[in-house]
Here is the input.
Amino acid sequence: MREGFIREEFSKDLYKPDQWQWQEGDLTVTRSCQWSGPGCHQGCSVLFYTKNNELVKIEGDPNSPVNEGRLCMRCLNMVEMVNHPDRIHTPLRRVGERGNNQWEEISWDEAYDEIVAKTKEITEKYGAKSISTGMGTGRNASWQTPALAFAGFKTPNDNAGMLSGDSCYTPRMMAMNALFGSTCIADMGQCLEKRFDDPRYSIPDMMLIWGNNPIVSNADGFFGHWVIDVMRRGTKIIVVDPRLTWLASKAEVWVQIRPGTDGAVALAMLHVMIEEGLYDAEFVDKWTYGFDALKERVADWTPERAAEIAWCEADVITKAARTFGAAGVNGTTTLQWGLKLDQQKYGVPAAHAIACMQIITGNIDVPGGFICINFGYTQSDIREAIAKDMMSEIKDGRLGDDYGALRRVGYAPHSSTDATLVAMETGEPYPIKMLYLCSTNPITNMGAESKRIYEAMKSIEFCVVCDLFITPTAAAFADIFLPVAMGCERSGVRGWYTPLRAINKVTDAGGKGDEVLMLELGKRLNPDYFPWDTVEEFDNYCMENLSSVPLKMTFEELRDKVIAYPDFEYRKYEKGLLRADGKPGFQTATGRIELYCTMYDMAGVDPLPYFDEPTESPMRTPELMEEYPFVLSTGARSWEFFHSEQRQSKAMREFHPDPIVELNTEDAAALGIKEGDWVNIENPHGKIRQKARVVPTIKKGVVHCEHGWWFPELAGEEPTLFGNWESNANCLTTMCDFGPSGYGAPYNTQICRVYK
Ligand code: SF4
Here is the structure.
């Protein structure tokens, strides 16, 4: 058992660190990881306690190097969610009109057969491309559902749950892949089994946390408490955020910016670092491309210029740049950035600018630095392995491959959601007539401009929703509802970065895992591509085809170990471990990290980082600001909810009963708004109401609305759809306003007015 994380309730005599399952009295204890809902997509290591195959308790696994026994309240509350009375346990067919929330139970075979019959009918009538799948963020479904789309439905259209501009991690991934040729993450020792005890590891001296509150969000395969782990060992932090988060309160420098001005602030920080020689000239000379062009680009980006744009003080920008630059020159810096960069129209160039700051410190792929992960995204391995040659047959004409410069040159992990919306609205370039939605609730969450998506979805002839509960999207549109298994009710492989983890099934409430849905439907639709008879056979296929993870073991072996670490090496670029040709350097056209990005140049995107104002903003549309004087940010995470999940949980609603809009104390006083008042938030796109939280910690002139709100306690049928339109922040956001690259959307940079 790992030292320092032993809870009282764990008896050293009973706990079996070397076994995946054991008995404690009348309880069976199973080690696993939690990846599918409810919870989040971090995949923390858990101990499931079951009695007569029913889940009675869940604890963090103290032996896991990943989360070392720690769990959020969402996972600790799993027993309530698994046994929740509103859960659906059998497939449902809609009865009567859409939207009346009336259902009849049907068998799994009936459900599968009906979906297959409708698929054939719609394919014959409109072509297979008129089918689109959609999935929720970062879960198991994000590899099984696209595989089913390509090889089962034979459509290239798998959209990211109607998320505009693919604005969740993809803009940062695009920037990293274009600049580095691989994905990079902050090194918290997570690639090493012994973590901080591995002699190869050392902590970063300085961590730049930008647009991210990782201890609440735990996003993108990054467990937020790792930041606290390194802070306890001496790491200092700089935070850039419009809100005073807990981490910002502990920072050496906190830069409080206007949402959406990140690019301007990063350019000014680069200006200071370069002007003052706070960079690693040797690394820049040897391993990067385009430094002189970058220097010229930032020459007139003074802190004063950025401060005026970002509504902050020039001195603070300068101090942040000097603190970060000096730490990089004298030690190790790393970067932990977040969704708020993706959720702005110019998120890709903002990420480009921020990445350049880390790059010129030279702390790339070194212990405690920004490490290159060339064995991440194992989901893609599997979906591509399953679809095999099918992709070349079906890929032409995928929706939105012309939506933005990077998409036009093939940088497109999914079909475009914005193009999917337009196709539903106009039938151009061809109609979308069937949706198969897995763990996504697009008229509440993910999809921006909820009412527009709702209206567009009325043109869908057949809609399947696979989820844990009846959601507003299911109530409004599902013709067939398939109940999905929760994390403890399915087996599988959790592949996202490292380590590789087993998901072990301990109970069964009737729902099916994504693997089962894919296999059952895939076999009926296109049996040649789905030859596995059982999930176990398929899991073993996954283990053999996780080509970018150099681990040779069967699923049974992984299950026994629960967590497995592939080898990891630092300074891979020096050893020829990053390039396909085995030469030293990075997998880019120049073999260097491209500060001046040749790929952007080729695609017709500005090859250097730049800043531009959001479509609606104090600087671009001052006339609109007279009517809507606040900058509106949406989507910060809460402890209790993962996006639109958990609203039916008694425990979570006890902690967090209402949707919260946060506004600054001075702004609230001027508007006569007091803590706890229900207020309207309105902009040119819609109006909602949330409860006011009045705080001095959010920037003056900025309000933040919580996202994902619906009310399972209200009527599910039309027109209320569980109160979907009352407090839903996506009634205030817009679709089809993505950046020139094709990525990034303004979830974080709208405008609004607020009144009682
Ligand atoms: S980060 Fe929290 S909710 Fe997510 S898997 Fe870990 S404990 Fe569960």
Remarks:
- The pocket of iron/sulfur cluster is lined by residues 34, 39-40, 42, 44, 71-72, 74-75, 218 (CB under 6 Å).
